[in-house]
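Reply to dn_fold:

You asked what the input looked like. This is it:
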Amino acid sequence: NIRCVRGRRQREHARSRAERIVKELCRSQSSEEFAGLFRDILGRLERCLPGSNIYLGLLQPGGNVIKYVAATVASKMKGENLPRGRGVSFNCIGQGCKEGLVIQKEDELSSRIFSFCSDDDLATENSWPFICVPLIHNDCTLGVLGVDGFGKVGKGREDDPHPEDGVLELLQMAGIELGTSVDRVRKSTALK
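and this is what came back:
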């Protein structure tokens, strides 16, 4: 179907453009005031994943809590704290977790997803999959980038599963760029 191919090409182009902009924004960040950077990055990702919930959490000192410091308008995650042992986001933190997680509704890990929303929100077909990638620099994980709510996100054919090819790679790249930026700025600030 020509419409499917055209739509896929447009989404590939949007992801490519988003990748360039995310890299530029992260590499130009020089202050520890990350709110603007996080807002801009999440906004750019939201253009590629319209209507989805996208949220960014930073690992807190001690490593036992992820504090969600930024989220798209649709998400209810901003300001929430996730303690270690709840949910699956901590599965993205630590050795050997550079790829992140893609959890479908029928996967074993789906029962461990913790939602700050009502269970009804999590039960809808449109909330799956749940994707979580680490904010990482070298072997240091600084936080996570999570996405759910794919009901309005384009894909090839109707029977194709989410995420479409290229989405996970875009999120992984954003996690690496954000992790590198946060780590670089924190170290630079500590030296002053």
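The beta strands are 53-59, 65-71, 81-83, 101-103, 130-137, 140-148.
Hope that clears it up.
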